[in-house]
Amino acid sequence: MDVTPQEPPKSPDSTEPPLEPPGIRPAPLGPVSPGPDPAVLPPLSLRTKLRRAAMGAVAGAVLVTGAVVAVPDEDEKKSAPPPAPGPVSRALKARDMGSPASLSDLTALLGDRQEWVGTHPADAPSWALLGTAYVEWGQRSADAAYFGRAEQALKRSLDVVPGEKGNTAAWVGLATLANARHDFVTAKKWGEKVRARQPKQWNVYPALIDAYNGLGDYKSANTAVEKFTALHSGAPALIRTAQSYRDRGRRKDALTSARAAADRATTPAQKAECLHLLGELAWERGEPGEAVAQYSAALRTDRASHPSLAGRAGALVALGRTAEAERDYKAALADLPRPEYMLALGELYESLGRDEDARNQYTQLGQALARDDGQGVDNALLRGRFETDHGDPATAAKLLKAEWARSHRSAEVADALGWALHRSGDSSSALKYATQAVDTGGRNAAYVAHLGAIQQRLKDYGAARRSLGEALLTNPHFSPLEGPAAQKALDALASPSAGGPEGR
Predict the structure, then answer these.
(1) 34, 127, 150, 394: least buried by Cβ within 10 Å?
(2) Is the C-alpha dihedral spanning 338, 299, 232, 135 positive or negative?
(3) pLDDT tens-place string over residues 261-302
(4) How far is CA 257 from its chain centroid?
């Protein structure tokens, strides 16, 4: 994905951010620079851009995936000089604490390691650090082209020092990369290799948590969360604990842990991540006003919290403030063009009757998914969701069955597969997947509504009323398209003549 370089914005003040705040975009991938082994060195254009970005004062954040590289070992300390006080040092400190670095500090670290490996190609730890940082850049820019650079750097690190000889930092990086590509089987493989050799290496557990969640192995994910919190503390551990509670439907416990994480956050980037999570929890409880407040607080803390712009947009839709929601979605997409945001904006347009705008948005979504396909990203789940509601449900069912066969059996995949089967006319087969999604997905309102629609089609009217009622009670605005449809179905079921015998 081509992006236009721009200079970093100045640090935000304490006032309310505009709906379209400035942000940083990574420089486009360019030709590789000359020097030792040009096949794996980073692009010159990015190196130059990062050097410039490191000089600016930027309020930015890298979303914590938890899968950061290991604390530098003795070989790294011998091969690479200690960083001078400043952004590189701050980025390394954040990494070692499992906290998000500001975007300006991360760019400085990237530039520093790129310069270093250009003249020290045998420094395995620096290659591992650079590769993991490339993964973060790819995630921050929603540009999967950087994942290829990450893979090159991580493999170069392992060529110099194999993982079996102590280079577990590169293995953690590969687990992080696999999770970013939604290849959870591979992420699990690399993460478990690290855990088998170094069970007390805390920074491998977030990668394992993500992998287990992607596979639907929630028991192992919860065990990994417990191990992570036993080995690590502070906001990162509390964030993971809150997310684990949320996934199990323990909303009050999730809220308590998320608030504790926000209280213990030590940097603006980390604070914004906690506030974003509080916004998500409020949204899932059906409190869009509170969600808007939390997402806005995240943006005041860190203007680079682009996911908070997208989250706020969804909450604004629920409040009927659709013009502001559209601006937020567009602002988020300008700096973080994630396909899921494209789908959300398209569905907003569709709900407003702006069919041409919706079609244009869906075309952009298709192009983004095609680009990701070329970079090894598995977007079968999102593609399946799109095909189910806006394309060919039979194609979606086939795609999602293949995903299930790959052991990607999360609640998200179970829900999407059940809904695709239902929409393609096979509601009987859909029921078991929809039931599993509800049972393992924390009673997500969308999942429960899908189950209710399937139960209605199968003439289990009493169960359908209960499911649709629960979904709308939890979050009546869970989707600008499906929320009204669920309400209409429930209204129809309220009449015994329309919905079958009462209590059936």
Answers:
(1) 34
(2) positive
(3) 999 999 898 999 999 999 999 999 999 999 999 999 999 999
(4) 20
Rounded-to-integer distance, Cα 485 and Cα 255, Å: 30
User: What is the Cα–Cα distance from 447 to 470, expressed in whole angstroms?
Assistant: 11
Longest dimension (CA), the chain: 79
CA-based nearest residue to 215, from 186, 190, 174? 186
The candidate with the shortest Cα–Cα distance to 127, out of 156, 91, 96, is 156
Record the pTM.
0.84
Among 75-84, 203-212, 490-499, the least confident range: 75-84
| 105 neighbors 207 (Cβ within 8 angstroms) | no
In eight-state DSSP terms, residue 407 is T
Percentage of the chain modeled with pLDDT above 90: 72
CA-CA distances (angstroms) from residue 373 to 29, 368, 369, 379, 396? Answer: 17, 9, 6, 7, 16
Predicted local confidence at residue 60, as pLDDT: 32
Yes or no: say if 121 and 130 are a contact pair by the CB < 8 Å rule: no
Could you tell me which residues are beta bridge partners of residue 43? Answer: 32
For residue 43, the SS3 value is: strand
Q: Is 289 exposed, middle or buried (0-12, 13-18, 19+ CB in 10 A)?
A: exposed
What are the DSSP E strand ranges found in 176-314?
none
- The pLDDT score that the predictor gives to residue 85 is 66
- Which of 135, 145, 139, 152 is closest to 40 using CA atoms? 152
The pair of three-digit structure tokens given for residue 124, joined into one six-digit string: 């395995």
